């Protein structure tokens, strides 16, 4: 079986020789050819060249065209900041000061969509008969957050009618992106909705169950496959994700994948993802990556049906190439890799850090433990709410952020026993774990401390 046949078989719920392998090499694809994130996501030739190198070096069964959740937001009026080692990030929301519901729909000539279409066609021609192409789009909830900003979280309780109207609009945008990819022969259509992990079961059921059922039904009627990608701690909504009707779901390291698989198996839904992005892929050794991937395969048990191995989300730009090669080898040559790591112990990444003396603080300390606010939408908005709270209180409150993409902050996160990212602590006490607060609630929490 070639890669495309493997992915098609897995998503068709057939028994296959091994799990599938998809390296989520978004901006990281550029690193393989010496291009930075801005170059690779703004130039068709550089993106195509980089994707072909991913295909050559990592031997994938499936490949993403790009991992940019700001693509639609940029077209619809969001302010975007570009960096050299992260995807573009939303820095301003067009609906921040208005309750208007937009009416503009996407066309294939808008923004960077001509680049996406061009690269999809070239990849389809070059390798489309050998691997499955994945088309990623911004899910309706995250897109609504991009358009409205942090006020959107306050409106979940205060103005549900507005939330529903805005989600009707962003669902239409998502459907148009789905159709764009389908028209270009892309095999797997993937709404990526990281902010969904930050809402409750009730809010998912009220606001997203019908929109996502509509999206996945549409993809299925168009004879394409689908995957529902939610980063962060999606544990509480795994069953709801399955009920919405995708062929597969993708999750990151915040979720116990073996427990999640018990749910996806009941719904005959493929599960994928889960290789840790920073502690393993970015900072680990080649052997660490091989060992972690083998351990992941072993935790999942029978991987001959409904399993795809992949990084937990978009790989960090600076991920060492040899680390991804090691993960690839572990999936494609599992028996040999298992022998190689049989007696291997994982590297220790801890460095010395000193925690604040919380009992002696002169003013409330809000600590935001994040993956990376430039690359993780949920982290972006959790930090934004914290900074709005600081603006409310002025110098009466201190807000600090820690990023799980450097060794010192990784060690601090471990020492604080933070279980889920992103999380907010006040004076050393956990207040919000993988749940973005609305500003009113956070202000009340801080006032109690004051």
Keywords:
globular, alpha/beta, four-stranded mixed β-sheet, 450 residues, 46% helix, TIM Barrel, Glutaredoxin, 2 domains, eight-stranded parallel β-sheet
Oligomer: single chain
Q: What is the correct CATH architecture of the largest domain?
A: Alpha-Beta Barrel
Query: Given this structure, which CATH class of the largest domain is correct?
Result: Alpha Beta
Uncertain spans, ≥5 residues at pLDDT below 50?
none
CATH topology of the largest domain: TIM Barrel
Summarize the helices and strands and which ones pair or pack.
Elements: H1 3-11, E1 20-21, H2 28-31, H3 37-40, H4 44-58, E2 62-64, H5 71-75, E3 79-81, E4 89-92, H6 113-127, E5 132-138, H7 140-148, H8 151-158, H9 160-183, E6 188-192, H10 201-207, H11 209-221, E7 225-229, H12 238-243, E8 248-251, H13 257-266, E9 270-275, H14 277-282, H15 286-300, E10 307-311, H16 321-332, H17 334-340, E11 365-370, H18 377-393, E12 398-403, H19 407-415, E13 423-426, E14 429-433, H20 439-449
Parallel strand pairs: 1-10, 2-5, 5-6, 6-7, 7-8, 8-9, 9-10, 11-12
Antiparallel strand pairs: 3-4, 11-13, 13-14
């Amino acid at each position: 079986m070639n890669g495309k046949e493997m992915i098609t078989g897995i998503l068709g719920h057939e028994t296959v020789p091994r799990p599938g392998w998809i390296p989520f090499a978004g901006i990281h694809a550029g690193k393989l050819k010496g291009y930075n994130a801005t170059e690779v996501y703004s130039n068709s030739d550089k993106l195509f060249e980089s994707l072909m190198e991913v295909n050559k070096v990592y031997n994938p069964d499936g490949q993403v065209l790009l991992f940019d959740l700001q693509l639609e937001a940029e077209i619809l009026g969001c302010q975007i900041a570009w960096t050299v080692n992260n995807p573009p990030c939303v820095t301003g929301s067009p609906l921040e000061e208005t309750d208007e519901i937009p009416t503009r729909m996407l066309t294939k000539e808008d923004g960077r969509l001509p680049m996406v279409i061009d690269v999809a066609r070239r990849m389809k021609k070059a390798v489309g008969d050998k691997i499955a192409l994945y088309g990623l789009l911004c899910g309706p909830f995250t897109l609504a957050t991009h358009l409205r900003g942090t006020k959107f979280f306050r409106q979940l309780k205060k103005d549900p009618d507005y939330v529903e109207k805005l989600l009707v609009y962003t669902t239409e945008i998502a459907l148009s992106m789905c159709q764009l990819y389908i028209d270009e022969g892309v095999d797997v259509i993937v709404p990526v909705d990281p902010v969904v992990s930050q809402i409750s079961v009730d809010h998912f059921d009220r606001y997203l169950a019908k929109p996502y059922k509509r999206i996945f039904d549409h993809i299925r009627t168009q004879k394409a496959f689908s995957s529902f990608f939610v980063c962060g701690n999606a544990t509480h909504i795994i069953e709801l994700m399955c009920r919405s009707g995708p062929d597969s779901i993708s999750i990151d390291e915040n979720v116990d994948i073996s427990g999640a698989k018990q749910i996806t198996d009941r719904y005959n839904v493929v599960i994928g993802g889960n290789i840790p992005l920073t502690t393993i892929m970015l900072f680990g050794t080649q052997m660490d990556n091989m060992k972690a991937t083998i351990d992941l395969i072993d935790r999942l048990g029978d991987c001959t049906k409904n399993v795809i191995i992949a990084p937990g989300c978009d790989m960090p730009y600076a991920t060492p190439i040899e680390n991804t090669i090691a993960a690839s080898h572990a999936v494609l040559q599992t028996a040999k890799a298992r022998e190689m790591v049989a007696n291997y112990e994982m590297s220790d990444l801890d460095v010395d850090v000193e925690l604040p003396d919380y009992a002696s603080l002169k003013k409330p300390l809000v600590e935001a433990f994040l993956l990376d606010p430039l690359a993780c939408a949920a982290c972006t908005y959790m930090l934004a709410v914290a900074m709005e709270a600081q603006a409310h209180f002025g110098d009466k409150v201190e807000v600090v952020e820690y990023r799980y993409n450097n060794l010192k902050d990784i060690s601090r996160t471990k020492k604080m026993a933070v279980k889920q990212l992103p999380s907010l602590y006040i004076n050393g006490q956990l207040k919000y774990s993988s749940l973005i607060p609305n500003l009113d609630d956070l202000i009340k929490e801080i006032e109690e401390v004051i």
